[in-house]
Amino acid sequence: QVQLVESGGGLVQAGGSLRLSCAASGRTFTTMGWFRQAPGKEREFVAAIRWSGGTTYFADSVKGRFTISRDNAKNTVYLQMNSLKPEDTAVYYCASQSRWQPALLYNYDYWGQGTQVTVTS
Fold first, then answer.
1. CB of 109 closer than 8 Å to CB of 96
2. Which of these, 56, 104, 101, lies nearest to 80 by C-alpha position?
3. pLDDT tens-digit series, residues 10-57
4. DSSP secondary structure string, 11-45?
5. N or C terminus of the chain with fewer C-beta within 10 Å?
6. Using an 8 Å Cβ cutoff, are 48 and 102 in contact?
7. 61, 71 in Cβ contact below 8 A?
8. At 1, is the pLDDT very low, low, confident or very high (cuts 50, 70, 90)?
9. Cα–Cα distance for residue pair 96/37, rounded to 1 Å
10. pLDDT tens for residues 46-104?
11. 7 — pLDDT class (breaks 50, 70, 90)
């Protein structure tokens, strides 16, 4: 059975950093991605990584601030978030898909339960 479990969220001041983790089990996927959703807003793409080769793709809003990586041995994907802004506040979700269409929400087949990230001014 497929399971994605996020961790690492928390409360941080603007300019600070957090590292999120997503532990995957059950099977492997072509692409692992991170999305986020703030209250009253639609879920939006953040970053994605391709397991084979480690190709990455980032939303413009986080490019240069966030880094996505993976540990193949641990079946874990990380999202390193630096220079955090209040507008980064959201529930962050890990997701997986069997294709390389990183920014397309509806191509992701499995989702974790999310982890809260709150950035204060």
1. yes
2. 56
3. 999 999 999 999 999 988 889 999 999 999 999 999 999 999 999 999
4. EEETT--EEEEEEEESS--SEEEEEEE-TTS--EE
5. N
6. yes
7. no
8. confident
9. 17
10. 999 999 999 999 999 999 999 999 998 999 999 999 999 999 999 999 999 999 999 99
11. very high
With a CB cutoff of 8 Å and minimum separation 6, the contacts of 49 are 31, 32, 33, 55, 56, 57, 68, 69, 70, 77
Contact predicate 25/75, CB 8 Å: yes
d(Cα 37, Cα 110) in Å, to the nearest integer? 16
Label each residue of 37-102 as H, E or C. Answer: ECCCCCCEEEEEEECCCCCEEECCCCCCCEEEEEECCCCEEEEEECCCCHHHCEEEEEEEECCCCC
pLDDT at residue 68, as a whole number: 98
